[in-house]
UniProtKB/TrEMBL annotation:
It comes from the Bacteria. Gene3D superfamilies: 3.40.50.11090, Glycogen Phosphorylase B. Pfam families: WsaF_C. Transmembrane segments: none annotated. SUPFAM superfamilies: UDP-Glycosyltransferase/glycogen phosphorylase (SSF53756). The lineage of its organism: Bacteria, Bacillati, Bacillota, Bacilli, Bacillales. Residues 170-293 form the WsaF C-terminal domain. This is WsaF C-terminal domain-containing protein.
């Protein structure tokens, strides 16, 4: 039996990244590997048993020994880094073993350009064998870091995320996590502010964080909800907004599995894993994101088509499929001639949604709805520009 260690950042409640780590760790255990979890020691005073209990409570059971800190206590066949700052610890382990990197985001993007960015980027230069969630990250490892890479697809728990016989509300839900800059909460809130101004009867649901909101328009903040409640939310909304700028999030794929049309931004990180149907990618401006949302809400036929196509895209992407792909990638690491992917094609080929206002108005006339939660941005409405946006999008609604 091969023995694998995982070096893991300290877990926090509601962390999708930790859920993915522990699920895939358990997938290896189920396939005959022995796994040990080395959890970052932040000085909390917890014992390994207490940590394991917390992991079980928030993320499900793992059949693994749990240690504190990143000093290996046993000999291993393979050690996984799971975050940029754990990669250096894995690199420096003085054992004759294979070393790998479980990559869920391009974490350099988490930091401003400077030491933080470059140190995170350096973690991809250590020669660790990458296994990425999704194709874009593998493509980036191959083309920018000359590192053979394997991936597993974004999948969803089809026992949880599925269509229900629910009545639809004229509503949009947004994964709102101010503590995660990569979620682009300011842009998302500005986009929803435009939607709410132009379509006051649209209900806005925020979820995903316990942090208090300071949003100027009427909304409902559900804070942290469990996965069953997420599925219920996706089934009663017309559009799901999820913005991720450092890799696709798992959330759009869970939304699609539930039959919810998705809006995200048209950036490179979303073009390799998302389908042309089921998802509508908009230019990164709030006005363009708002236009994409309004377009879907105003077009019942498009809603139905995107819903059907999203479900179809996800029907063969249950969690077990992703786990199988991951285990196969790990198995390859023990082959004499380890290889990874050499080229990966884009999946999303449609152009971005771009708000008409950018083609018709000068930048000084564009309406900006400021996010109250950012002190440096004054909350205001530039009425002259907003009237132009309103006229433009009202024409879209009528059409």
């Amino acid at each position: 039996m091969k023995k694998i260690a995982w070096f893991i950042p300290y877990p926090t409640e509601g962390s999708g990244g930790h859920r993915t780590i522990f699920q895939n760790l358990q997938a290896l255990v189920n396939c005959g590997y022995e796994c040990h979890a080395y959890i970052e020691d932040i000085g909390s005073g917890e014992t390994p048993n207490q940590l394991k209990s917390s992991i079980h409570k928030y993320f499900g059971n793992i059949d693994a020994k749990v240690y504190l800190g990143f000093q290996p206590q046993e000999q291993y066949d393979l050690i996984f880094a799971t975050a940029w700052y754990t990669a250096k610890f894995v690199r420096d382990v003085n054992q004759n073993c294979k070393k790998a990197y479980f990559i869920q985001d391009f974490e350099a993007y988490f930091n401003p350009m400077g030491d933080g960015y470059l140190l995170a980027e350096n973690s991809y230069r250590y020669g660790l064998m990458p296994v990425t969630i999704g194709k874009w990250l593998s493509n980036k490892m191959i083309n920018e870091f000359n590192t053979p890479s394997n991936y597993f697809d974004f999948c969803a728990d089809n026992k949880v995320y599925k269509k229900l016989n629910s009545n639809k509300e004229k509503a949009v839900c947004f994964i709102y996590q101010p503590e995660k800059p990569r979620r682009c909460n300011i842009i998302g809130i500005e986009a929803l502010g435009i939607v709410k101004h132009l379509m006051p009867d649209v209900k806005v649901y925020l979820y995903g964080s316990k942090q208090k909101t300071n949003v100027w328009f009427d909304h409902i903040n559900l804070e942290l909800i469990n996965i069953e409640q997420c599925n219920e939310l996706y089934n009663k909304c017309m559009v799901g907004l999820c913005i991720s700028s450092s890799n696709p999030s798992r959330i759009p794929f869970e939304m699609m599995a539930a039959g919810l049309p998705v809006v995200d931004i048209h950036k490179e990180n979303n073009l390799y894993d998302m389908p042309d149907n089921g998802v509508l990618l908009a230019d990164q401006t709030p006005e363009s994101i708002a236009e994409a949302i309004i377009n879907i809400i105003s077009n019942e036929e498009q809603q139905q088509e995107m819903s059907d196509q999203g479900v179809k895209f996800m029907e063969n992407k249950d969690l077990e499929t992703g786990f199988k792909q991951f285990v196969e990638a790990v198995d390859k690491m023990f082959e004499a001639n380890y290889t990874g992917n050499t080229s990966i094609d884009r999946m999303y080929l449609a152009p971005p949604v771009i708000a008409d206002v950018f083609l018709q108005s000068k930048s000084k006339d564009i309406a900006i709805l400021s996010n109250q939660s950012v002190p440096s941005i004054r909350r205001s409405i530039l009425y002259r520009g907003l009237r132009k946006v309103k006229r433009s999008i009202k024409r879209l609604i009528k059409n």
